[in-house]
């Protein structure tokens, strides 16, 4: 029986680019033309693959279990990404790889179910299994019938895609199968917050709670009940689009739950737009229940035709939360900032930097695909000439670029911020979820002020010898990035 393919790679599905260093207008033009030029690295220092991404997302589902079908080391990502998850690894060795591993998946699943009583099990195949064509599909199907719980197969190949986010797509396919169809009517005050990280979900949920909305967070931290409620929601809001938009879009296609496509609420203006976009979503009125539909009460303080306000307007006034916090004004005035975040968050954070008076000197993202084309085009118009760096797991490229660019401040994920600080640049390490909402703007302003006014720490760090030889740093940062030849 032919092996069914895994998730379509981001390169094929969304024309994703994982290697680029140039002005953003050239890449924006490629997306506008509908065909991107693929670039490869002749040397790659390190990079996550789709297996790591899939395990990262699946490990956040509460009460589920994971079987990693592959060599023992393939499950290492779960140790850090999901320390509380229930998981096992089939531990394939050379003999299993050559002769086959019949029965090992079944034994691993049964052992996990006996020990932890999960409500769902994910069987994740690894690049080794992709190479030897060991197909666990029949085993998974029989176990679903035998155990009476969903056992989902997640295929990762590792070598088919250079974009790790392909693994998120593979995981989302399995997660969608956990959402049962519902016969109940839509719950108009229920909103799905679709997020990879629970912290980001909490920040968004806090904004929605001010409007009296009930929030269902998934897949991060969701259990069987959370997935069961997903199809009843009035709306889905994706906080981590690179990781979870495939889930939100699948929920829309399969169950009719619309997805809010309004960008991330990072920055003052963007948060206001996000709030207003939620407020503009209309609630359909069931037949015989009164006049035509009115906004669902999110952020509207006036009723239709000047009548009474809807009942759910508590906490928001014309879309502005009552707990909006003050942001230090122009704390980044004249400061050149290099941003290094996932693409959606990076483009939004560029607007926040401008709101705080700063200037974006460079932008580093892990990949760019067609879902970012609109934001990329807008960034090109508002930040002409700014260098765009596309790379995942290439710290030597980033250090090289920073050495030539000499920004006043680096803002990025904690691991990249530590790299920038060691290279001698004041740095702020923040995950994208820490930037969400009004408080996210305050958080960045406070951290930036502290980093800029207390440079002693980075001076001490940068006194240590660089891990990179001078010859490496004399080359251009994109020395190893070449156009793919077919």
Summarize this structure briefly.
By secondary structure, the chain is of the alpha/beta class. The protein has helices spanning 10-14, 24-33, 50-58, 76-81, 94-99, 104-116, 127-132, 137-147, 166-176, 198-209, 224-229, 241-255, 268-280, 343-355, 373-382, 395-405, 414-422, 437-453, 456-462, 470-474; strands spanning 20-22, 39-41, 65-69, 86-89, 121-125, 151-155, 187-195, 214-219, 233-238, 259-260, 316-317, 320-321, 336-340, 359-365, 387-390, 409-412, 427-429, 481-483.
Secondary structure layout plus pairing:
Elements (H helix, E strand, L loop, with lengths): L9 H5 L5 E3 L1 H10 L5 E3 L8 H9 L6 E5 L6 H6 L4 E4 L4 H6 L4 H13 L4 E5 L1 H6 L4 H11 L3 E5 L10 H11 L10 E9 L2 H12 L4 E6 L4 H6 L3 E6 L2 H15 L3 E2 L7 H13 L35 E2 L2 E2 L14 E5 L2 H13 L3 E7 L7 H10 L4 E4 L4 H11 L3 E4 L1 H9 L4 E3 L7 H17 L2 H7 L7 H5 L6 E3 L3
Parallel strand pairs: 3-4, 3-5, 5-6, 7-8, 7-9, 9-10, 13-14, 13-16, 14-15, 16-17
Antiparallel strand pairs: 1-15, 2-18, 11-12
Spell out the key features of this protein.
single chain; 486 residues; alpha/beta
């Amino acid at each position: 029986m032919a092996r069914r393919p895994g998730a379509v790679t981001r390169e094929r599905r969304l024309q994703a680019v994982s290697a680029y260093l140039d002005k953003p207008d050239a890449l924006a033009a490629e997306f506008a033309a509908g065909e991107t030029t693929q670039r490869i690295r002749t040397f790659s220092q390190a990079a996550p693959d789709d297996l790591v991404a899939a395990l990262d997302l699946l490990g956040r589902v509460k009460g589920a279990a994971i079987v990693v079908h592959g060599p023992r080391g393939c499950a290492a990502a779960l140790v850090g990404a999901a320390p509380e998850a229930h998981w096992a690894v089939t531990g394939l060795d050379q003999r299993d790889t050559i002769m086959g591993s019949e029965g090992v998946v079944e034994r691993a699943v049964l052992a996990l179910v006996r020990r932890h009583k999960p409500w769902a099990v994910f069987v994740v195949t690894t690049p080794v299994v992709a190479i030897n064509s060991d197909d666990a599909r029949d085993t998974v199907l029989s176990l679903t019938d035998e155990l009476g719980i969903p056992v989902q197969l997640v295929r990762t190949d590792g070598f088919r895609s250079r974009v790790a986010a392909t693994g998120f797509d593979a995981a989302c396919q399995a997660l969608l199968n956990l959402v049962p169809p519902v016969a109940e009517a839509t719950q108009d005050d229920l909103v799905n917050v679709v997020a990879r990280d629970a912290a980001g979900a909490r920040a968004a949920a806090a904004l929605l709670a001010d409007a009296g909305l009930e929030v269902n967070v998934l897949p991060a931290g969701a259990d069987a009940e959370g997935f069961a409620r997903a199809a009843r929601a009035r709306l889905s809001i994706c906080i981590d689009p690179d990781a979870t938009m495939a889930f939100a879009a699948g929920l829309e296609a399969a169950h009719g739950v619309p997805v809010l496509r309004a960008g991330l609420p990072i920055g003052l203006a963007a948060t206001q737009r996000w709030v207003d976009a939620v407020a503009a979503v209309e609630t359909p009125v069931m037949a015989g229940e009164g006049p035509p539909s009115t906004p669902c009460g999110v952020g509207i303080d006036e009723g239709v035709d000047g009548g009474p306000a809807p009942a759910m307007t508590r906490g928001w006034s014309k879309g502005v939360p009552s707990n909006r916090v003050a942001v230090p004004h122009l704390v980044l005035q004249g400061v050149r900032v290099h941003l290094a975040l996932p693409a959606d968050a990076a483009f939004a954070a560029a607007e926040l930097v401008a709101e705080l008076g700063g200037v974006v000197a460079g932008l580093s993202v892990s990949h760019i695909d067609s879902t970012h084309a609109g934001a990329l085009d807008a960034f090109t118009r508002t930040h002409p000439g700014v260098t765009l760096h596309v790379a995942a797991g290439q710290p030597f490229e980033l250090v090289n670029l920073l050495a030539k660019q000499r920004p006043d401040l680096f803002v990025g994920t904690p691991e990249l911020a530590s790299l920038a600080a060691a290279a001698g640049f004041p740095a702020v390490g923040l995950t994208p979820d820490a930037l969400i909402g009004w408080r996210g703007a305050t958080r960045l302003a406070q951290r930036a002020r502290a980093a800029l006014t207390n440079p002693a720490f980075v001076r001490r760090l940068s006194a240590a010898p660089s891990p990179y030889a001078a010859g490496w740093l004399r080359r251009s940062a994109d020395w190893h990035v070449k156009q793919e030849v077919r």
